[in-house]
Specification:
single chain, 139 residues, alpha+beta, two-stranded antiparallel sheet, 3 helices, 31% helix, rod-shaped
């Protein structure tokens, strides 16, 4: 009587291959987002600062004033007469000149340019600064 031959496996089965590919896909789906670098949202540093001041005015329920100096130093102050201390301070890497923006608790804003030669114009609808072409060419 013949006995069945024991033979060595020379490869992998289709089921094993599918399981390995599924596991690799799962690992990549979990790990891939950490390798991606988010792109900038295209806003300027001043636009981000104005948005922060706006949120501050809304959250505090009182008007605030954002003031930037020619050297890029900025501060957010409470409404006139309420407090002498600044709510927040900092500095911009790209100086925009002297600008004062008054922001209300309803999110409205009024620009008061203190140095018109810096090339910052204002979009009143979105309450955001818009660089003019001459300011972008100076970079």
């Amino acid at each position: 009587m013949r006995q069945p031959r024991a033979y060595a496996r020379a490869g992998v089965t289709l089921l094993e291959l599918i399981v390995v590919i599924a596991l690799l896909g799962l690992i990549l789906a979990v790990a891939a987002p950490s390798f991606l670098v988010p792109e900038g949202n295209g806003t300027t540093e001043l636009a981000d600062l104005v948005a922060t001041a706006r949120r501050t005015a809304v959250l505090r329920g009182e008007p605030v004033t954002l003031v930037t100096e020619t050297n890029g130093v900025w501060r957010i102050d409470a409404a006139a007469g309420r407090s002498r201390d600044a709510i927040a301070t900092g500095s911009l890497t790209d100086a925009v000149g002297k600008v004062r923006v008054h922001l209300t608790p309803l999110g409205a804003c009024v620009l008061e340019p203190l140095d018109a030669s810096q090339g910052v114009s204002w979009d009143a609808v979105s309450c955001a600064p818009v660089r003019t072409a001459s300011a972008g060419a100076r970079r």
